[in-house]
Design brief:
Elements lengths: L6 E6 L8 H15 L3 E6 L10 E5 L17 H4 L2 H11 L5 H16 L7 E5 L5 H6 L4 E4 L4 H10 L7 H10 L3 H8 L4 E4 L2 H10 L7 E3 L21 E5 L9 H11 L7 E5 L6 H9 L6 E3 L5 H10 L2 E4 L8 H8 L4 E4 L4 H5 L7 E3 L4 H13 L2 H18 L2 H20 L35
Parallel strand pairs: 1-2, 1-4, 2-3, 4-5, 5-6, 6-7, 8-9, 8-11, 9-10, 11-12, 12-13
Length: 457
């Protein structure tokens, strides 16, 4: 019997690609699911995602309190009548990141008001993990993607707020992450948890208490149409590039700055292009001034994908200094652009980069001296060697990390969750067939996908 074309409800509390990896995930996964013939509705709060043709957007408007234009605003009388609004506003004023919680509450209320008129086969939550998901689970199978354990961010943030002089900062960190117990509770009750690497799966089992049989590694994809080699652009000999969507201790940026300062003692023309971060932390700015790097570090702010791809093409070496990554989009995107890469071994980065010395060089996280040595050796390497490493990186991405492969593994997980929820084999639910696959740019270079899906490397 033919497999059923699924009707999928994909939830994301904020979906704009400029908001970070979750927005990219929403756009590109939904695109591939639709291309496979499935019906996909993305339910999103602000800022809303930029979706491709064939994917439907269902807007779930919230207060959008983290919009820079709304940080100090008060509730209107109309907004204040809504208990979800009041809760979100108060929790936010007390320092909690309340957006995922309130988004899930609004979704659950919308489902309740529609009173069973929705014909979804499955609900897929993109790391919101609000308590409202448990209400949805009474009606439908619910799965969630956890890109990496937020417990890692929490620990690194606490580490940076130690000491008597940081008591206020320490309190702020604890308040911000006070949503974690809710996420633990919700994630343990859903049909299945998807994650993007074996490293993340191990940490979710340990930190969240999720049983291993409910964890499924589905991997991620890289946008190979947007991120690719640009042979028409001249590569510079004196520029490093890194991506910093948010200036957090977890990203290891402080160690990269120390490495840059050391390298500039013998390479005074060396500069660093920082993609994505427009408002570095005060502690970062102080470090830049202390190290005399004001003229050497350029923060791009939020820029379009085309600008990022061109910046990679112009750069000598890409650097990922993270202490932990659940997957590592910056590493994969640099590899897709054929840029020589120096990366730490934090979290899943070795799964993306592969064996050190082939598609990239790996060093231990949190070690500025090791980072500087690896970058120095890469800059000294013959151009032919750097080019060969870049080409190997592109081949690895095409073989392991296309969005089609990630979508296929995700659909396999959907069917397992549907069967678990209903107790009926998922393939026998309908005779409707899945539409033919749409070929996307680069698929002709990907390995044969007719056999069993491989675990992401």
């Amino acid at each position: 019997m033919a497999e059923k074309a699924l009707h999928i409800c994909l939830l994301t509390y904020r979906g704009n690609p400029q908001s970070g990896g979750q927005g990219i995930y929403t756009r590109l996964l939904s695109r591939e699911l639709a291309a496979m013939g499935h019906r996909v509705d993305v339910w999103s709060g602000q800022p809303y995602p930029e979706l491709t043709d064939g994917v439907n957007l269902v807007e779930i408007p919230g207060l959008d309190l983290w919009n820079s234009d709304a940080l100090l605003r008060m509730l209107t009388l109309t907004e204040a009548r809504d208990p979800i609004n009041r809760s979100e506003w108060l929790r936010s004023k007390l320092g909690e990141f309340a957006e995922p919680r309130s988004f899930c509450a609004r979704v659950a209320r919308r489902f309740e008001r529609l009173n069973g008129s929705l014909d979804y086969d499955i609900v897929h939550d993109n790391q919101c993990l609000g308590a409202g998901l448990l209400d949805l689970r009474k009606r439908l199978p619910v799965v969630a993607t956890i890109h990496h354990p937020i417990t890692k961010d929490y620990r690194f943030a606490l580490e940076s707020a130690r000491g008597l002089l940081n008591l206020k900062k320490n309190y702020g960190v604890r308040r911000w992450y006070s949503f974690l117990p809710m996420q633990f509770e919700v994630s343990r009750q859903l049909e299945q948890i998807f994650t993007v690497s074996r490293a993340s799966a191990d940490d979710l089992e340990h930190d969240y208490g999720i049983s291993r049989d409910r964890l499924r590694v589905v991997g991620n994809g890289i946008n190979i149409e947007a991120f690719g080699p640009r042979p028409e652009i001249t590569r510079r000999s004196d520029r490093l590039i890194t991506t910093l969507s948010a200036d957090q201790p977890l990203k290891g940026f402080t160690f990269l700055l120390d490495a840059l300062a050391e390298l500039r003692k013998t390479r005074p023309a060396l500069t660093l292009k920082v993609i994505g971060c427009s408002e570095p932390r005060e502690v970062t700015l102080k470090q830049i001034r202390r190290l005399g790097l004001e003229a050497a570090v350029d923060f791009s702010g939020r820029v379009e994908t085309e600008v990022i791809a061109r910046a990679y093409a112009e750069s000598t070496v890409a650097v990922v200094a993270s202490l932990y990554e659940g997957f590592g989009f910056p590493a994969g995107e640099a590899m897709a652009c054929e840029v020589p890469l120096v990366s730490t071994t934090g979290g899943a980065l070795p799964e993306v980069v592969g064996e050190s010395g082939k598609a990239g060089v790996l060093v231990e996280p949190g070690n500025a001296a090791a980072l500087a040595r690896a970058i120095d050796e890469m800059l000294d390497a013959p151009e032919q060697r750097r080019r060969a490493m870049g080409e190997a990186g592109r081949r690895r991405v095409l073989a392991q990390f296309t969005w089609r492969r990630a979508a296929e593994r995700t659909v396999d997980g959907y069917r397992e969750a549907i069967e678990k929820h209903h107790g009926v084999p998922a393939m026998a639910q309908s005779t409707a067939t899945v539409a033919p696959l749409r070929r996307t740019a680069g698929d002709e270079l990907a390995p044969d996908t007719s056999g069993p899906a491989a675990e992401p490397c």
